[in-house]
Write a structure and sequence with these properties.
alpha/beta; globular
Amino acid sequence: MPRRSYAGRVTEPVPRRFNLARYCLGPAPHRPPDRVALLVVHHPEEPLRGVERWTFGELDDAVRACAAGLLGLGLQRGDRVVLRLGNTSEFAVLFFACAAAGLVAVPTSPQLTPEEVAFVVDDVRASALALAPELAAGVDPPHGVRPVTPGDVRAWREAGPRAGWADTGGEDPAYLVFTSGTSGVPKGVLHGHRAVWGRRPMYAGWHDIREGDTVLHAGSLNWTYTLGVGLTDPWAVGATAVVSVGPPDPRAWGRLVAATEATVFAAVPGVFRQVLSRGDLREGDLRTLRHVVTAGEALSPALRTAWGERTGLEMYEALGMSEVSTFVSSSPTVPVHPGSPGRPQAGRRVAVLTVDGERPVPVGARGLLAVHRSDPGLMLRYWERPEEDAAVTRGEWFVSADLVDLDDDGYVHHHGRADDVMTSLGYRVSPLEVEHCLAQHPGVADVAVTEVPVREELTVVTAFVVPRDCGLLGGGTGEGGRASGAFEADLVAHARARLAAYKCPRQVRIVATLPRTANGKLIRRELRRVPDVDG
């Protein structure tokens, strides 16, 4: 009988009483109150100008003050608080304050449009909405939703009571993040307080973060990758987290590492690609780094090789998802195998199942990557989407849409996704959501969206559009003298006004027809072969 593709063991049980915020920020010998816990860099081109410095003692106090402030608004345990605050100290404080108070934080991307924010607020039935002034345009808290501002955070810290840590358990809800799915409508992923306990296998199994480290993450704090590697993991072990406000120039990353003396740098592969091509690295910029870590999209062997040759630093990759974060990785203790993100982390139970999700496949055979439902890092459930829960549950397994195989050495090899969800700038994006947006443009007769490779290590979201104006199909200009180039630009502008930037198509291709079955079902895998019309 062939050996089955299965790896791992049951993880260490979560303590009976467990609070995410207390685990990360509560008093502990490895978190001296006077140690710097957070650096917020406001001017990445001059990293030390106007930097915010927070000690563990100050964060502990601020989080408990804001927990008391939120409860003072009349919020009840389990209420949802939507955060639209960008990469700021207020985001960090309020996220952990929600957990400390037994509330549920709902981080949102600063790239979301007001319409998308309104969807989230309505979908989770939010009780409060925290807004940064620069992100408030067009966003009005509905009746009954309490507004929270950075000014409230300051007031609560300056003069207000301090709350104790809520008496929560690992199964109690702690935060809710939104991700795209095959339905085309963003869905909430609800995590319990135990999610931070479920990250423990990553400490040695991936990023090797230690007490006293300084961790710089290039991502946005609303993203689970950044929340985990950029905040919760460093604070859990007594390390310093570095947050940069605003998207810095690629040349700023080397300066940030040097100025903050970062020991671990985390980002998506695209950031490392930019650092190599446009980062203007100076001698000694990266001297304090032990290594870098990457996740969010596949790392090409060519980029890994180029990074190592240029910097002398190892790059450790991980594979994960919003529902369970990263659970497959390489690390200083798991040798890198180019072309593979690594092996299941110690303490994980991982399997490769048949496409129907019913049984494990033999080693070397392709199937769906699955995680045992006992993993404490696994979500509690999708937010009010029972049909989505049923779709990913197969007995004792949570089944992803990632097609993989597991080799004889236990390394995972990724072969894309069984569904149509795309990855853009590290975010999961549903093509249906983008299609629905573009289909509302009056000039669109039909549209389909997929990823298209533009070079070996990079794919971009591409819209294939059949226009209503037949003149655009025959070259030249259509009715009204509009050139096809102007039509494409108009489509992109239409998307940008309604979708977060990472969801918007980077390319628009004008086509005469879309590939469909006899029953009219779109054949998405054939899109790349559809010829453009002469333009």
